[in-house]
């Protein structure tokens, strides 16, 4: 039951804090901190006030002592003594001068006192403790005060009623309290106003903008406009504006990709049906006796079969992952066969595709996936040279490879126009790295993913002219 009560009280505190808000909590904290500062100031102040009050009484007693010293035979009438004691506010005054001790009183000296205050030796710690006792303890016994003398007087001693001192200290404390409340209120108000204008209001603006932007992140008009501020709030506004811009662009691009994926799915369905029909027609060519047909038909059948598999598994980029590679050690040159036939894509350019790979070199990879990568790289090179021509010499694309230990490096180089700088920044990102007009930038992204699935890397080398892509594949262990 006790636990439930504690949880309920904590929940109530949290709800109250939520209703107060950030600015209200800052105001309360400011008031509390100012009051703490005032308390730290009040303690030595009230001790100093008590010391000053007692010092004033000692000074008045010294004047009374001078009157007593000037009187004939150092004796005064009872009426004068009463007036002197009343003016000082003391029950008795004693002083010591020249080894003699004189006493001014009308009533017998009390047998004991509540406290003796020696102003000649009292430090701050003693003064603070004495002030605390005077305020909190109501003692009927009188107070004995000892102070410095003057004009040949060694010291002055008083016996006082502590009630007037206590009343005076209470009045002083009341004034300090009222002044502290006024100061804390004014200070808290000014701090609240400054914090409200410089922090709370900008933070609320940030929160409102985040909520508004979240309703429609693709609407760039909802992006926050950074203010002129150069402090942390201004930096947060600038960072938020940059993040909202990037996020809005990304969401719009992903929406376009989703729309594109739906369109591609429809095209893929129809294209797969057409390729299947073409494959059925090509199957009949295998029975034609013409030698040329017999030489071309098997490769045409294999190409159509690969195209059907591509339609079933490719262009799923963004919707599903590529299939897991079926890696095996296989000769490289048969994999290059399709890539070497791509020179016909630009017949007017008379492009030569050179196979410079060593005879018998094998690679540990999925043959179909590696063939797709090489076909993509060679096709891009042929199309670039066909559009812009060669940068130097006869148009050519060269494929080289070498093995170093368990690593095979394949280079696809051309002497075409090279890649523009804008395409290099996002070269292997889908729909970002198109290097020619009309390109989608999807081919290199898929090629990089296929090489990565086979445990390798695809990168672009820095060359003086043309372009050179580097494929690095490492054999599996064991």
From TrEMBL:
Statement: the UniProt record of this protein carries the keyword Cell membrane: no
SUPFAM superfamilies: ATPase domain of HSP90 chaperone/DNA topoisomerase II/histidine kinase
InterPro entries named among the record's database cross-references: 2C_sensor_his_kinase (IPR050980), HAMP_dom (IPR003660), HATPase_C_sf (IPR036890), HATPase_dom (IPR003594), His_kinase_dom (IPR005467), Sig_transdc_His_kin-like_C (IPR004358)
Catalyzed chemical reaction(s): ATP + protein L-histidine = ADP + protein N-phospho-L-histidine
Signal sequence range: none
Segments traversing the membrane: 26-47, 176-199
GO molecular function, one term: ATP binding
Record's keyword terms, sorted: ATP-binding, Kinase, Membrane, Nucleotide-binding, Phosphoprotein, Transferase, Transmembrane, Transmembrane helix
Gene3D superfamilies, sorted: 1.10.287.130, Histidine kinase-like ATPase, C-terminal domain
E.C. number(s) listed in UniProt: 2.7.13.3
Gene Ontology biological process terms from the UniProt entry: signal transduction
Gene Ontology CC annotations of this record: membrane
Annotated ranges, domain Histidine kinase: 266-477
SMART domains, per database record: HATPase_c
Location in or out of the cell: Membrane
Keyword Nucleotidyltransferase among UniProt keywords: no
Alphabetized PROSITE patterns for the sequence: HIS_KIN (PS50109)
Name of the protein this chain belongs to: histidine kinase
Organism: Methylobacterium terrae
Origin organism lineage: Bacteria, Pseudomonadati, Pseudomonadota, Alphaproteobacteria, Hyphomicrobiales
């Amino acid at each position: 039951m006790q636990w439930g009560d504690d949880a309920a009280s904590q929940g109530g505190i949290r709800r109250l804090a939520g209703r107060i808000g950030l600015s209200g909590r800052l105001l309360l904290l400011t008031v509390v901190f100012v009051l703490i500062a005032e308390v730290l100031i009040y303690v030595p102040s009230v001790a100093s006030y008590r010391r000053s009050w007692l010092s004033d009484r000692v000074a008045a007693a010294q004047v009374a002592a001078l009157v007593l010293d000037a009187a004939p035979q150092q004796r005064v009438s009872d009426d004068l003594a009463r007036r002197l004691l009343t003016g000082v506010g003391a029950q008795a005054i004693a002083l010591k001068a020249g080894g003699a001790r004189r006493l001014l009183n009308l009533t017998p000296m009390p047998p004991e006192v509540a406290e003796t205050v020696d102003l000649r030796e009292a430090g701050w710690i003693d003064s603070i403790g004495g002030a605390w006792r005077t305020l909190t303890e109501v003692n009927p016994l009188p107070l004995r005060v000892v102070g410095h003398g003057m004009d040949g007087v060694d010291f002055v001693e008083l016996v006082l009623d502590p009630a007037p001192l206590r009343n005076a200290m209470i009045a002083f404390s009341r004034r300090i309290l009222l002044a502290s409340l006024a100061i804390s209120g004014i200070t808290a108000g000014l701090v609240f106003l400054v914090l409200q204008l410089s922090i709370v209001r900008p933070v609320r603006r940030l929160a409102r903008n985040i909520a508004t932007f979240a309703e429609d992140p693709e609407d760039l008009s909802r992006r926050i406009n950074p203010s002129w501020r150069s402090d942390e709030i201004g930096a947060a506004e600038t960072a938020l504006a940059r993040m909202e811009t990037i996020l809005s662009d990304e969401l719009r691009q992903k929406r376009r990709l989703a729309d594109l994926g739906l369109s591609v799915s429809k095209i893929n369905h129809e294209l797969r049906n057409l390729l299947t029909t073409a494959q059925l027609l090509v199957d009949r060519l295998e029975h034609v006796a013409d030698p040329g047909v017999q030489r071309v038909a098997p490769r045409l059948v294999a190409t159509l079969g690969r195209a059907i598999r591509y339609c079933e598994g490719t262009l799923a980029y963004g919707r599903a992952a590529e299939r897991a590679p079926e890696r095996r050690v296989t000769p490289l040159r048969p994999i290059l066969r399709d890539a070497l036939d791509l020179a016909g894509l630009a017949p007017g350019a008379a492009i030569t595709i050179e196979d410079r790979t060593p005879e018998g070199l094998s690679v540990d990879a999925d043959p179909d996936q590696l063939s797709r990568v090489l076909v993509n790289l060679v096709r891009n090179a042929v199309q670039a040279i066909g559009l812009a021509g060669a940068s130097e010499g006869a148009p050519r694309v060269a494929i080289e490879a070498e093995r170093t230990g368990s690593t095979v490096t394949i280079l696809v180089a051309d002497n075409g126009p090279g890649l523009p700088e804008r395409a290099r920044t996002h070269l292997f990102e889908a729909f970002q790295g198109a290097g020619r007009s009309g390109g989608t930038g999807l081919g290199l992204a898929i090629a990089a993913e296929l090489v990565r699935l086979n445990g390798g890397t695809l990168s672009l080398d820095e060359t003086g002219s043309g372009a050179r892509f580097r494929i690095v594949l490492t054999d599996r262990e064991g």
